[in-house]
Design a protein that fits this description.
Blueprint lengths: L13 E5 L5 E4 L5 E5 L5 E15 L14 E8 L7 E4 H8 L31 E10 L13 E2 L7 E7 L10 E15 L13 E12 L4 E6 L5 E11 L2 E2 L5 E6 L3 E7 H12 L7 E5 L16 E2 L6 E7 L10 E11 L11
Parallel strand pairs: 6-11
Antiparallel strand pairs: 1-10, 2-10, 3-9, 4-7, 4-8, 4-10, 5-6, 5-9, 11-20, 12-19, 13-14, 13-17, 13-18, 13-20, 15-16, 15-19
Length: 356
């Protein structure tokens, strides 16, 4: 008879270490990529990415369309065990996706009881040259609470190689209009869970959680801009961000989801969806951005079961759309981008040892 193992939760604890060589220096325009080999230890739950440095300005400037977050052009977490990354999003998409993690979490905003953001978490000058600090949190597990076991990456085997790759935006003025130089450092903090005695404690179920930004549709005309979700796992969240006339814009009238071309389970007037977003995220919505959170069946955001989530492989068509009113100026750049998080359940119960 097989031995009954105790839950993984009972035999683990959280740990945090600085990954790779510590600090990775960069100079915008010279350094294109920073590649960090993550430690072969424990079950990886998240990466806390800190980007800090000094930006030189010729005078007071303005942020580019995606603000300071586009300093990181793209962030990817991938392993040598599969071709689809666990995390693959632009810097701006990564900033937006981290807001799913906790109610009220946005590194650029003041915390409860404060009026400005803590400079240890976020600061970025645009009036004059100075130091900056950016925080991006890339989560691989569903959360760090009740559902923390789902999505953990077993990085303990020496055969597994997991990399964090940061691509930097080479254009200084994409970040601040008057920038003339930008140098800094990148740190990747590795948040993981110990693996207990495998003869006593189960390993987490084999589950992959991916955060992916690979859906973009140019908006060539007013009307509905519709995108079809790829058939990949159970979707817990997605967000849309819309550019019209080259800037993030709220000049859309509604958003909706459609199943198999006929069923419309959600249709939101813009003002209603923004109110819905404000209600459960507890922070003001961002211009041009709408969030769709289905993983909150237990009440708080990013906590629950899969009651309201979408099995994308169960439908021939699962679509998301944004409606642009007639007469809206589209301008030189108009597009509709989607960042989504999907869960692939490879094993639904913890592995047990073979019968003796």
């Amino acid at each position: 008879m097989a031995q009954q193992l105790m839950p993984f939760r009972a035999g683990t604890r959280q740990r945090l270490v600085l990954a790779g060589q510590g600090q990775y220096s960069f100079t915008i325009g010279t350094t294109n990529n920073v590649n960090v080999l993550l430690p072969n230890v424990g079950q990886l739950g998240m990466i806390i990415l800190k980007v800090r440095g000094t930006i030189t300005l010729s005078g007071a400037g303005t942020f580019g369309v995606f603000g300071p977050w586009t300093l990181v052009a793209n962030a990817t977490i991938s392993t040598n065990l599969g071709s689809v990354p666990l995390w693959n999003a632009t810097g701006y998409g990564t900033y937006l996706a981290q807001r799913w993690q906790k109610e009220g979490w946005d590194p650029s905003l003041a915390g409860v009881g404060a009026t400005t953001a803590d400079s240890n978490v976020y600061v970025f000058p645009i009036a004059a040259s100075g130091a900056y600090e950016l925080t991006y949190i890339l989560t691989l597990s569903l959360n760090d609470g009740l559902n923390f076991e789902l999505g953990l990456l077993n990085n303990q085997s020496p055969q597994v190689q997991t990399y964090l790759n940061i691509t930097l935006d080479p254009v200084l003025t994409d970040v601040v209009s008057t920038a003339t130089a930008n140098t800094g450092t990148i740190e990747a903090w590795y948040w993981y869970y110990d693996i207990g005695d495998p003869s006593q404690f189960a390993l987490p179920p084999l589950t992959i959680v991916r955060t992916i930004e690979d859906m973009v549709a140019p908006i060539a005309a007013t009307g509905d801009s519709i995108q079809v979700f790829p058939q990949l796992g159970v979707m817990t969240n997605f967000l849309q961000y819309i550019r019209l006339n080259s800037v993030l814009s709220d000049l859309f009238s509604q958003t909706y989801m459609r199943v198999n071309k006929t069923d419309v389970p959600y249709i939101f007037e813009r003002q209603v969806q923004k109110a819905w977003n404000r209600r459960y995220m507890l922070i003001n919505p961002i211009v041009g951005v709408v969030d769709w959170n289905f993983f909150q069946a237990y009440g708080p955001i990013n906590l629950g079961d899969f009651r309201d989530c979408w099995d994308t492989e169960a439908f021939a068509y699962l679509e998301a759309a944004v409606s642009i009113p007639s007469g809206t100026t589209l301008g030189a750049i108009a597009d509709h981008r989607i960042v989504r998080r999907v869960v692939q359940l490879l094993q639904t119960t913890p592995a047990q040892p073979a019968a003796q």
